[in-house]
C-alpha cells in the first residue's frame, strides 16, 4: 500500500481529503482520498508515499493533525497474536520510536487501553528483532500503529522533521486555574504548534507590545502577559479583573474592527466571532497599514464548503496585506469550526 495516512478533527475528513487532493494535483501527482465522515483520518492513495511526502509538507497542511507515510493495512488480526503479523509485514529497517494510537473519536476511545497495552508488548518485540533504535535520532523514522478496531490496524511511519511530534498530533495542554477562559488554550497551542523553539524565544520577549482584538474575557491577553508582553485589550465587554493586576494590560472599550493603534506593535491577535472574509480583510488592513509586525488570528468557518472558504480567505488576506508574508494556518486541537493563522514578514 502506498500513500499517506493523515489524522484530523472528526467531521473535517472531507476538508482534509479535498486539501490533499488539490495539493497533490497542483504538484502533478496522481491519487485519491478515502475516508468516512467522523472517522478522524484520511488515506490518500495512488501515488508513492516517497513522492507524496515531500510534495505535501506537513507545515503547509491546514486540516491535518498528523501526516504519515502509509506502509500497510492489516485486517482480521487475531487478538491472541497481533505482533507476529505486524513484524512479518513491516519492511526490514529500524525505527527510532514507536507510537501506538487510535483515531481521536468517541467511537475509537475504547481502543485506548488496547493501544497502551499493545505498545508495551510491541516495543520489546521490536527491540529484540533489532527493529527499534535505542538512540534519539531525528533522521530515523518513527513507527506508527493506528488501531481503528481491535482486529484492524494501519502501519505507517513519520519523518520526524515533517510530522507532528505528539501522539495523534495533539499537544496535551492543561487549563491553568488563572486563565480567564478556555480560549487561552487555543493561543497556547498556536504558539507551540505554529512557532518553532527559536521563534518562540525571539518573538515572545518581555517588553514587547501587542493588541488583542475582541479580547473579552481575556484568554488570549492572559497568554501574552505570561510572556511579559504589554497588551492593549480591545473589547466593549469586560475583562477578568485579575488581568489588570499584572500592570501589563490596558483595556480599551472599543470595536476591534475600527480601533487603530497610535504606533506600530510587535503583535496583533484576534479571535473575534465574525464572518471569515471580513476578519481576513481586517487582518490584511493591519499589515497593509504597518500596525503590527506579526499576528495570530482565527477564521470561523461556515458549515459548508469549508475548504473552499479557507482558500478564499487566505488568498484574500495575502493579496490585500500589501507586503510579502509567511503565512501558516492549522486547525488546532482546541479549535472547533475554525482555523488559526500565523502571519509574519518574510
From TrEMBL:
Catalytic activity: cytidine(2498) in 23S rRNA + S-adenosyl-L-methionine = 2'-O-methylcytidine(2498) in 23S rRNA + S-adenosyl-L-homocysteine + H(+)
Positions of the Ribosomal RNA methyltransferase FtsJ domain: 181-273
Residue ranges annotated for the Ribosomal RNA large subunit methyltransferase M THUMP-like domain, each copy included: 81-155
Domain RlmM ferredoxin-like: 1-68
Recorded coiled-coil stretches: none
Annotated EC: 2.1.1.186
Entry-linked SUPFAM superfamilies: S-adenosyl-L-methionine-dependent methyltransferases
Any single biological process term in GO: methylation
Subcellular location: Cytoplasm
GO cellular component, as recorded: cytoplasm
InterPro entries: RlmM_FDX, RlmM_THUMP-like, RNA_MeTrfase_FtsJ_dom, rRNA_MeTrfase_M, SAM-dependent_MTases_sf
GO MF terms held by the record: S-adenosylmethionine-dependent methyltransferase activity
Keyword tags: Cytoplasm, Methyltransferase, rRNA processing, S-adenosyl-L-methionine, Transferase
Gene3D superfamilies the UniProt entry points to: 3.30.2300.20, 3.30.70.2810, Vaccinia Virus protein VP39
Active-site positions on this chain: 300 (proton acceptor)
Enzyme class: transferase
Annotated S-adenosyl-L-methionine binding sites: 183, 216-219, 235, 255, 271
NCBIfam families: PRK11760.1
Role: Catalyzes the 2'-O-methylation at nucleotide C2498 in 23S rRNA.
Quaternary assembly: Monomer.
Family listed: Belongs to the class I-like SAM-binding methyltransferase superfamily. RNA methyltransferase RlmE family. RlmM subfamily.
Protein known as: Ribosomal RNA large subunit methyltransferase M
